[in-house]
Design goal:
- There is one protein chain.
- The protein is mostly helical.
- It has one domain.
- 30% of the residues lie in helices and 6% in strands.
- Strands 1-2 form a two-stranded antiparallel sheet.
- A hairpin with a 6-residue loop joins strand 1 and strand 2.
């Protein structure tokens, strides 16, 4: 997984505490906190963010071609 804030890449399956240790949603927490900056990343949104990134890159290429 790549953190959306700091860009740090890590394996979310190797983390001891995937979710927030201080929130009350331990059982239903879907966030994976970055070990570098602490940002709570949502694994379900990875595909959506990847699509948005590809779309932005496509617009940049079109703009630079004109």
């Amino acid at each position: 997984m790549k953190c959306r804030v700091c860009g740090f890449e890590f394996d979310e399956n190797e983390l001891e505490n995937r979710g927030c240790s201080s929130c009350g949603k331990h059982d239903n927490c879907n966030q994976v906190h970055c070990p570098n900056c602490g940002f709570g990343n949502h694994p379900q949104l990875d595909e959506e963010f990847e699509f948005i990134t590809k779309l932005k890159d496509r617009f940049k290429r079109r703009k630079s071609a004109n």
